[in-house]
Specification:
300 residues; elongated; Arc Repressor Mutant, subunit A; D-Maltodextrin-Binding Protein, domain 2; two-stranded antiparallel sheet; 7-stranded mixed β-sheet; alpha/beta
Length: 300
């Protein structure tokens, strides 16, 4: 057995695809197929079952995969112990992010990660928290960054940052003239909200419920799937909105928006790094997970 053949087996098993495995190893699909064929000839039994586009391990393949994974992990450990550069990690890294982490975390996080792992090719898909969780759960993304704790047992999460949602209005809005308002005052105010799959929206709804308001009490003026679009609508007087501090910080400083203090209402949450609890990560994904768990934003 050759190490490169074991790498191909592990890649196919973890990517669940010859195409994605070949991309992660920077090989041709034919090359990966030859490696698997060499292993199958060596052990004398099929290691993979192919059904259409899907690939899964046979019983023998699962047993060999477990050994191969241990061998590759030991090789990686030996390289680290001997000071071999992290720059050896390469391949694609698929990230699914909801809108606030995409704006507040991803640029700095990926810039620092790319300094350490220049041969990793990152691709980021931005949606809402529900869609990002689904992408990770279904294997369409290796890792995710979302604004709420996943509801599925097949997704594991680690809190890596905090976020605060602020109620903002245009400077000409009647609420802008009030130093502090009661929660009940919001019942009659048009609110611009995120779409139902948004973690921000669910966080706001839970916070409102804690002060005696339910979602049905609110007057929804508009629903948008973009924080930037919501901010623009609020600046133009469409209504009030709860937006992440990072989204409105500059507009508040430039007095394009006004902050509204609601008595007893504090809308805070964690931002989570997520990965599959059932599917092993490719090397670039494991490196990103380890890096992100240690990462802290640089002080500005």
């Amino acid at each position: 057995m050759e190490l490169r053949h074991l790498k191909s087996l592990v890649a196919v098993a973890e990517c669940e695809s010859f195409t994605r495995a070949a991309q992660s190893l920077q090989l041709t699909q034919a090359g990966v197929s030859k490696h698997i064929a060499a292993l199958e000839e060596d052990v004398g039994t099929p290691l993979l079952e192919r059904s259409g586009r899907s690939v899964r391990l046979t019983q023998a393949g699962s047993r060999l995969y477990a050994y191969a994974r241990q061998i590759l992990d030991l090789v990686e450990l030996a390289r680290r112990e001997l000071g071999v550069s992290d720059r050896m990690v390469k391949g694609p890294l698929r990230i699914a992010a909801s809108t606030v982490p995409a704006q507040s975390l991803v640029p700095e996080l990926l810039a620092q990660f790319h300094e350490l792992y220049p041969q990793v090719r990152e691709s980021v898909t931005v949606s809402d928290s529900s869609a990002a969780m689904q992408a990770v759960e279904e294997g369409q993304a290796d890792v995710g960054l979302v604004g709420e704790l996943p509801y599925s047992a097949s997704v594991q999460a680690r809190a890596i940052a905090d976020d605060e949602l602020l109620l903002v209005v245009s400077p000409e809005h009647p609420l802008a003239k009030s130093r502090k308002v009661t929660p009940q005052r919001l019942r009659s105010e048009p609110i611009v909200v995120r779409e139902p799959g948004s973690g921000s929206r669910r966080c706001v709804e839970r916070a409102l419920d804690s002060v005696g308001l339910c979602a049905g009490d609110m007057t929804i003026a508009m629903e948008m799937n973009s924080n930037e679009a919501i901010r623009g609508a609020v600046e133009r007087g469409v209504g009030a909105a709860f937006l992440s501090r990072v989204v409105v910080a500059q507009a508040l400083a430039e007095k394009k928006l006004a902050l509204v203090d609601v008595k007893g209402l504090h809308v805070r949450r964690h931002l989570f790094l997520i990965s599959s609890a059932r599917r092993p990560l490719p090397p670039a994904g494991r490196a990103f997970l380890e890096f992100a768990e240690r990462w802290r934003p640089r002080q500005r």
